[in-house]
Amino acid sequence: MSLLSVEDALDRILGSATLRPRTEHVGLHDAVGRVLAEDVPALVTHPAFDNSAMDGYAVRHQDIETVGAELAVIGQSAAGHGFKGEVGPGQAVRIFTGAPLPAGADTVIIQEDTERLPEDRIRTKFVPGKGRHIRLSGQDFAFGEAALSAGELLDAGRLTLAAGMNHARLPVFKRPKIAILATGDELLPPSSKPGADQIIASNSFGVGAIARDNGAEVIDLGIVADDQKAIADQVARAQAADVDVLVTLGGASVGDHDLVQATLLSCGMTLDFWRIAMRPGKPLMVGKLGDTTVLGLPGNPVSSLVCALLFLEPLTRKLARLPARERMTTARLASPLPANDVRQDYVRARLTRDADGSLVAHPFSRQDSSMMKVFAQSDCLIVRRPHAAEAPLGASCDILRLR
After folding, report:
1. Would you call 190 helix, strand, or coil by DSSP?
2. CA neighbor of 246 nearest in space, from 197, 281, 188, 285
3. Which of 34, 122, 156, 337 has its C-alpha lying 20 to 30 A from 181's C-alpha?
């Protein structure tokens, strides 16, 4: 099987993804970052009544058509405590922002445009237009209006609108379920005391963080040894949980101790491909197990994280109905890079800004795919296309931002 390009691999992964119409209703506090599954109609009209947009006086416009008009103040209207009477000729009602407009009034004159006189009277200093400073009932939305539509991402503004429409819960698409399974005789969980031939398993935490950050519910299947039955048991557990994606970490190649691919094939997986023209991350396995997408990520931590960013993130966002996240931009090289071979390179680098504010990428001198500290210190990955020519100091380069 020949090596696939990164672009072709991503197209195939996204093209075969199964979008399931699974929905649920959640409270507003839990709805941020979720995607609406249905149109949401307003359960109230807003504003529910004509009200004042300013502090001032509710008047009849015909009584203030000339500067210096004098009016008798007959009461007040405050938010939650409206004036119950009616404004008649030569009368005004003191009104506050958000308060109901009294019957008979058709204009609000702001307090700065009036002069207080003795015996609860005012004199006008300005003539506003008729209807000024009034919020009309329904000018925001009306009862039954679908002010929020299916497919919209629920952010602060849309959640505020939903609450204002009198909804306490909203219909949203369920988060995609992603199961993560680490494999390897040498792996131990954090806080263990490793022996001479053992290491601490770390990949699942970074990969899980990427999945959660992009809208997924993550099921950690833990660590299993290089044993086909043990692997098959966890695959069965993932199937029982009806996950959208099963991510395996390590063992996806075809070496003597790489049992994941063979086990998954025996469990019914249809293999699509398992090698990509990229570095780090060449041995990426992709297949389908029923409606579940299987992503077999490399065992080296950096390879695993790079592949998760390139493939798991866009897959997760598609399954969650979230818009694609754009991480790509350009920078200038702080040091030259050699010509590239047939694989697409992702070179870890720090970012700074030069005097004119442009991004400058500083590649790390060591790029081994097991070096977690270098990845953690990196701000971006410099993307080197296959067969790219030598890049001199100061050359423009494509970068994938990590943060």
Report:
1. coil
2. 285
3. 34
3-state SS class at 260? helix
Q: Are 79 and 55 in contact (CB under 8 A)?
A: no
Distance CA 372, CA 351 (A): 18
pLDDT 10s digits, 29-47: 999 999 999 999 999 999 9
What is the value of pTM for the model shown? 0.88
How confident is the model over 373-393, as a mean pLDDT? 97
Reported as a single tens digit per residue, the pLDDT across 224-255 is 999 999 999 999 999 999 999 999 999 766 65
* Strand order from edge to edge, sheet including 245-249: 217-224, 177-183, 245-249, 292-297, 285-289, 270-273
| pLDDT confidence of residue 255 | 58
Question: What is the token pair recorded at 185?
Answer: 């005789």
Condensed to tens digits (0 to 9), the pLDDT of residues 74-93 reads: 999 999 999 999 999 999 99
Burial of 371 (0-12, 13-18, 19+ CB in 10 A): middle
| Three-class secondary structure of residue 108 per DSSP | strand
Is pLDDT at 2 greater than 90 in this prediction?
A: no
pLDDT of residue 253: 64
Residues 6+ apart with CB under 8 A from 111: 55, 56, 57
Q: Which long-range contacts (CB under 8 A, 24 or more apart) does 220-223 make?
A: 220/179, 220/180, 221/179, 221/180, 221/181, 221/182, 222/181, 222/182, 222/189, 223/182, 223/183, 223/184, 223/187, 223/188, 223/189
Which amino acid, residue 156?
A
Residue listed under structure tokens 């445009």: 113
Mean pLDDT of 200-225: 96
